[in-house]
């Protein structure tokens, strides 16, 4: 069949019937199929591209989240380190505050001492000029105190004062050493007031008119001294004894019971008996409102021996001292 403006039909049998196909229609179907395939491919490409974009976005989001987590972890570490530093700083501040509180009184005391030393340094020239006269006065006061005191170990004590006076007149001893020796003798005298002592020696000193006559002064007697409160003696045979009265500067006789108390005190001083209270008359009597000297003058002049005040003389800590 000749071609013309109309397409040529093609026939083929399909069973008992004959089907005619137009070539134009088949081309149209091919184009449609191709378009569909192209569209499918385009859709698949777009879907693949979208999936790639989504995957990339997911990766980027994960990376961002990981970076953010690292920043958070880093911030947590920094925060923990900062908190640890703060804790250590707080503990150190507490320790320093406690240390400063303990040192505050020490520093204040050192400041007072420094101020006192500075004042002493400012007055050192005046002190140096006044020191020799002060030491001389201290030695003179020491001699006067010994001469007015109870006459125990008087020669030995006055010998110390004589040594001090010779030392003051010598230029071989420094001022500091002189002052130290003067203080040492003063401390010895002060210690006598806290000691209980006993020794044997000849009886010296004036006796009261009513004291028994005899050969007491020709014999050795046993002395007992209880601080500066009482000074006593008894004869070795125990028949006589006396108490020294500071106001009258003489011995007053003791009765039999008081002599026994003195002998007991001597045993205590020798560590032969336990410490105990001694019922003995005191060498110095104190009356309220009067000086010791005035009180003793009144006792010696206006009362008898039986009316003299009695005192429980304690036996203090003793220190043995012997004298010939």
TrEMBL record:
Signal peptide extent: 1-50
Keyword Signal: yes
Species of origin: Salinicola endophyticus
Protein name: DUF3450 domain-containing protein
Region (Disordered): 1-24, 283-324
Entry keyword set: Signal
Pfam families to which the protein is assigned, alphabetical: DUF3450
